[in-house]
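Review form for a predicted model. The reviewer records the input and the model, then writes brief findings.
Reviewer: anonymous (R2)
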Amino acid sequence: MNKFCIVVLLIACSIPANPQFSLEVNAGVERVSAHLKFFKFIDKNKRWSIYSGNHVAVNYDTGKPGFISANIFAYHFRSGIGISTVLIAGKNGLHPSAGLQYQKTIRSFSFYILATIEPNKFAKQENYFFLVYKHKLSNRMKFVFNNENYISFQKWATIRVFNG
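Model under review:
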């Protein structure tokens, strides 16, 4: 699966546009993790985009690594509303879904909301909310604040919440 993710990333990087990469490294009480994010508009009108978020974590006690990759292919209308297809890959396999999104950038702030439904044996509805603030410190460096929230409804009875 790691080879598949590398191939997808290499193909996405070969499309001419202005790429945006970010790498986060976090060390906590239970684990250390790294999160590589990639976002790119793939056309001149900025209608089609690709997002890939790849997260690797290693637990201190067990030494077992964990990996999850979230990949979004989206079409944006002029109003900021769009449609997307999502593929999440992890230790539990592949999870495709489709959804509606809203993306808006106002000066240094970016807002992104995505609501998806995974048509599987049961309906799984997931909601993502991203708030990003970027401030240019120099020509080579930017300060970035990124807040991600995730809410999942499984079988319409179980709720999982993640705020990272």
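Findings: The beta strands are 20-27, 31-41, 48-59, 65-76, 81-90, 93-106, 109-119, 123-136, 142-154, 158-163.
Further findings: Residues 2-163 form one domain.
Recommendation: see findings above.
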